[in-house]
Amino acid sequence: MHNLLGIYTIWYRDILRFWHDKLRMMGSISFPLLFLFVFGSGLSTRMGALGSGVNFVQFMFPGIIGMTVLMSSFTAGISVVWDREFGFLKEVLVAPISRGSVAIGKTLGSATVALAQGLIIMLLAPLIGVSLSIGSILTIIPLMLLLATIMGSLGVLIATRIRSMEAFQAVMQMLLFPIVFLSGVFFPLDGLPSWMNVIVKLNPATYGIASIRQVVLGSSTDTAFSLSLFGHTMSIWDNVAVLAILGMVILLLAMWSFNNQE
Length: 262
What we know:
Radius of gyration: 19 Å
Number of domains: 1
Largest sheet: 2 strands, antiparallel
């Protein structure tokens, strides 16, 4: 019971911090919009249709939703470093709850914030000619939450091994942009060089972006928007299964790392 209350308290604290930080809210939305409307519009005429009458901006749209979710949840690990520097984390760690509960609370807090940001981006679908049914929206929401949980766990895992804000920001930039650019946000995943194809398939975000794109664009498994793994064309459920396995492994590692830090 104490652990559940601790998870809720840590989750609620992160939600409140985000809600009261209006500048953070605006900044987290403006960056994806910059990619979608400036980068996407600038290249749309040169890229042409990418299959089934889908233009480049429409192709990017589900990727931008996923990018918003993964960036927000991954960078939330900075709150762990922040709490350590200002002494709050030490007070939490001596509380009568397990350290694993702290990691879960931090992960769920970052995932909830990331989900809210992804939903805001999803509201822009009519502006770029993408039609989303109620069923599609209800399918996308758990996909976004699953992706956010995985990336939030990864952010927490990294943050438990870092002692300063400057070091976390450096590591975050070193990892975040390769994760984004090698997840299929901006380009189809077929016909990649062999070395890049290996990195793309090892990237957890790849499977989240692919599944969201399949739902948003209504693409079947035989289109260029699908992901292939070991010669097998991945369905949405295949992607979800991979995400769930990776998410469980990363979350357990984050809990273990929290339990073994000073």
